[in-house]
Write a structure and sequence with these properties.
alpha+beta, 13% strand, 2 helices, 3 strands
Length: 78
């Protein structure tokens, strides 16, 4: 049971590590480097348009991979 407690902490570790800088969509994001709020948003990071400070994107609790399983295609009957 000890291994299970270490593997699944249910967000407790996130609470102990503190606030992490990240670009949060649909929020007012201020650059930690220069204080401006204009961003160039990519797939993995957002970059400040003034000083080029890059922040990782915060996607929330969605997680997962962009790769999806495609449904199996059955060959057409001859």
């Amino acid at each position: 049971m000890e291994g299970m407690a270490q593997m699944y902490d249910f967000g407790i570790r996130r609470a102990l590590t503190g606030y992490r800088l990240a670009y949060r969509p649909h929020e007012s994001n201020v650059c930690p480097g220069c204080g401006q709020s204009h961003w160039i948003v990519g797939r993995m990071t957002a970059e400040c348009a003034f000083c080029s400070t890059a922040l990782p994107l915060h996607h929330g609790a969605g997680g997962g991979s962009a790769l999806r399983n495609r449904p199996a295609r059955h060959p057409l009957a001859a």
